[in-house]
Amino acid sequence: MAEPELFADADSMAAAIFARTGGAVRLALPLGLGKPLSIVNALTRMAAANPSLRLTIFTALTLSRPRPESDMERRFLEPALDRLFGAYPELHYAEMIREDAVPDNITVSEFFFQAGDWLSDEYAQRHYISASYTHARDVLIAQRPNVVAQLFAEENGRLSMACNTDISADLFAFRGDGRMDFIAVGEISDEMPFMDGPAALEMDALQMKLEPHAPYGLFSAVRRPVSDAQHAIGLHVARQIRDGGTLQIGIGAIGDAVANALLLRDAGRLEDVWRAAPMPLVGDETGRFEAGLYAVTEMLVGGLIALLDAGILRREVGGAVIHAGFFVEAREMYQRLRDMAPERRGRISMMPVSYTNALYGDEAAKRAARVDARFVNGAMQASLLGDVMSDSARPGQVVSGVGGQMDFVAQALALEGARAIVTLPATRCTGGRLTSNIVWTTPVVTIPRHMRDIVVTEYGAADLRGQTDEEVIKRMIAIADSRFQTTLAAEAQRAGKLDRDWRVPEAHRRNTPDRVRDWLAPWRGDALPDFPLGTDFDEIERALLPALARLREAALDRVQMARLMAASLWSKPHPQEGEALKRMGYDAAPRLFQPLSARALRGALRAQAAHRP
Questions:
Q1: Residue of 148, 130, 147 lying closest to 139 (CA atoms)
Q2: DSSP 3-state of 183
Q3: What is the CB neighbour count within 10 angstroms for residue 280?
Q4: 370 phi and psi, to 5 degrees?
Q5: Please, are residues 259 and 310 in contact by the beta-carbon 8 Å criterion?
Q6: What is the pLDDT of residues 163-173, one digit of tens each?
Q7: 139: buried, middle or exposed (CB in 10 Å: 19+, 13-18, 0-12)?
Q8: Dihedral (C-alpha) 139, 142, 148, 150: value to the nearest 10 degrees?
């Protein structure tokens, strides 16, 4: 194959792509970070301006900057958006979807959404394709893509798929052995870390290459603060991870909490924390990691890099200690990958999800490598019988997608000694109302009850595998919030699934946020910080985030809100109170006629300070 045709202008490249495809582009795009935004936007602009052209896009995880939904969110986010997310362009097709302005000659389908972005959008919901991560490749191939476009790193005349070997690696391999035929086009990013090994391609793999004059920064998935509930979940999960075993965790605050708890466990710093726990603890894996862990995960996250740096991830499989399919994280992680020595970066091997998420294909070797696996994934709701809902808010309305969760649960059941750990906070706030995430039945099922394994909330871990329905119900109620336990038990009893004389055991009757907060308070400033893996938020924003979370919680409860109002008058000021109020656009000093929202925030800041050592 020849060297790729070089372009400096995306519009010229788009015209060449349409010309090569006869005016009908069936475009395969990687999920998340690997989308070549300049190329995609140029193709979208050209198709929107010319109805005779046809553009069909198949992708997932279209990344967008957050959009404030309230005055308080606007005050917090707007001054920081450009600093936190940089000059990351919006995808034109996403703008058209939001404006209900997608022309008839453009079609966009995704198999996984950025969580919550398209929940109320009819176009996105109608064009969503339900597929697990391992099956998405075959769904894509069935669309007969004639163009594959990706963002690449370039080094010494070679290319790297870097953040997205997930499906792309298989597509290039299939084209190489004659099973597929497509035009490969790429955009070069100087900020993308060059990942070698299976992620690397020779330059002649591309037919067209874009080197734009105005490159853009990579999307940063800004880390959120880890709450008391999330830290508690991490502490419970850490007792399930076996030394010498295999680990998978995901992105987000719970993943950060799990990684932090494992770091503390290896340092011998959790005995006092666990000893002080106000609830029974499940799991005996509490020692240091003498043999170390190996990670096989669809997503490379900052928590895994932290475990690699600490030497906890050191069990090698094929020369690597981490096998991963894709990444999108905070910009700090991209920088760490770029700065790593090549031999160290080589211990992270980016692979297709057909490798990470499935056992078929060299199954014997995978089974030998994935010993004592623990696959940790989040959920939205879980039923008393062990059904798990992870991708929808209500029937038919997709929040995100199945992704790889089903893949890893299936692996856990197929591998000897493996476990699937589903994590979720016990409660959530919906429409200004507190509800339980442990329910009698879920409106949608992502993982069915016959695949139930371990479920973890801030109130403990419920080991469900091989248990009777009645025992499963008892164990699930034991990790539910106590404000909902009586109702949950009554529902199960009415259904004839729970002995009518059964009562919640005394040890589980005080499952409340205050009890968790009091348990963790002595360690919250040091071992259990808000941002255990670092953050792009500045010092004042870091002080504001927990207070804003407390304010949202209080908005559901008049008593809690009254306490915050009282705290704004009588409690000791937060050390950074004036700067925090000013950052939010309020007067720094208390005033008699200040807005109620300012007074409530002041109270939340003071209440937050009172609960920290």
A1: 130
A2: strand
A3: 12
A4: -95, 55
A5: no
A6: 999 999 999 99
A7: middle
A8: 0
d(CA 517, CA 229): 8
CA distance 479 to 275: 18
Q: What percent of the chain has pLDDT over 90?
A: 76
Cα 186 to Cα 235, 346, 587, distances in angstroms = 43, 23, 50
Looking at residue 431, what is its pLDDT? 64
User: What's the pTM value of the predicted model, to 2 decimals?
Assistant: 0.92
Contact 134, 357 (CB under 8 A): yes
Task: Answer yes or no: are the C-beta atoms of 348 and 322 closer than 8 Å.
Answer: yes
- The two structure tokens encoding residue 189: 């990013």
What is the sign of the dihedral through the CA atoms of 461, 467, 472 and 478?
A: negative
Q: What angle do CA 112, 254, 85 make, to 5 degrees?
A: 60
Q: What are phi and psi of 481, to 5 degrees?
A: -65, 135
| Beta pairing class for 388-389 and 147-155 | unpaired
pLDDT, tens digit, 9 for 90 and up, residues 216-268: 889 988 888 899 999 999 999 999 999 999 999 988 999 999 999 999 999 99
Q: How far is CA 79 from CA 83, 85, 257, in A?
A: 8, 11, 28
Torsion sign across C-alpha atoms 371, 376, 377, 379 = positive
CA distances from 605 to 13, 221, 552 (A): 52, 25, 13
User: What confidence tier does 611 reach under pLDDT thresholds 50, 70, 90?
Assistant: low
Q: Which of 86-100, 557-571, 597-611 has the highest mean pLDDT?
A: 86-100
Residue % of the chain over a pLDDT of 70: 99
Contact by Cβ (8 Å): 402, 446: yes
Q: How many residues does the chain have?
A: 613
Amino acid identity, residue 500? Answer: R
Phi/psi at 394 (5° precision): -155, 165
Spatial distance between the Cα atoms of 517 and 180, rounded to a whole number of angstroms:
55
CA separation, residue 448 to residues 380, 385, 405, 419 (Å): 14, 9, 12, 15
If one counts every other C-beta atom within 10 angstroms of the C-beta of residue 556, the result is: 16
For residues 399-429, b (16+ Cβ closer than 10 Å) or e, as one string?
A: bbbbbbbbbbbbbbeebeebbbbbbbbbbee
User: Which amino acid appears at position 254 of this protein?
Assistant: I
DSSP state for residue 496 in the 8-state scheme: T
Residue 283 gets the label, from left (phi > 0), alpha (psi -120 to 50) or beta, of left
**CA distances, 194 to each of 158, 210, 221, 305, 320 (Å):** 9, 17, 19, 16, 16
One-letter amino acid at 401 equals G
